[in-house]
Amino acid sequence: MEKDEGKKGEYKKELMENRVPFYFSKLNSVQERNGGNFLVGDSLSWADILVAHYLEFFESAADPNILVPYPNLKKLKDTVYGLPQVKAWVEKRPKTAM
Q1: How far apart are CA 57 and CA 59, in angstroms?
Q2: Could you please report the per-residue DSSP string of 38-94?
Q3: What's the pLDDT tens digit per position in 1-12?
Q4: N or C: which end of the chain has fewer CB within 10 A?
């Protein structure tokens, strides 16, 4: 939403160099400690769906390789997006910028 291109670049740099690694590494650790396909327990939760959605957003909007350093988050996203109901929705959902 920032109109100033200079500020927009600063914000993006801060996000990609500091915020994303900080939060993604924390989530990656949670996923690793759980040892399963989900963030908590062994079944799907709203948290899994929400986090998978944001991970997919970052891949499509920021960097398609953003999850390379975070294999557990990639596994989470792939697991959620591989569920038959989710996969069917993604294939038919309207295409939007977000």
Answers
A1: 5
A2: SSSTTS--HHHHHHHHHHHHHHHHT-TTTTTT-HHHHHHHHHHHHSHHHHHHHHHSP
A3: 788 888 888 988
A4: N
Measured between alpha carbons, how far is 48 from 79 in angstroms, rounded to an integer? 9
How do residues 41-93 score in pLDDT, each as one tens digit?
Answer: 889 999 999 999 999 999 988 899 999 999 999 999 999 999 999 999 989 98
What is the CATH classification number for the domain harbouring 70? 1.20.1050.10
What is the pLDDT at residue 98?
60
- Predicted structure pTM score: 0.83
Task: Specify the number of domains making up the chain.
Answer: 1
Q: Is residue 31 part of a domain?
A: yes
Domain range for residue 75? 5-92
CB 66 within 8 A of CB 75: no
- Any domain includes 60: yes
Per the structure block, which two tokens stand in for 30?
A: 């949670």
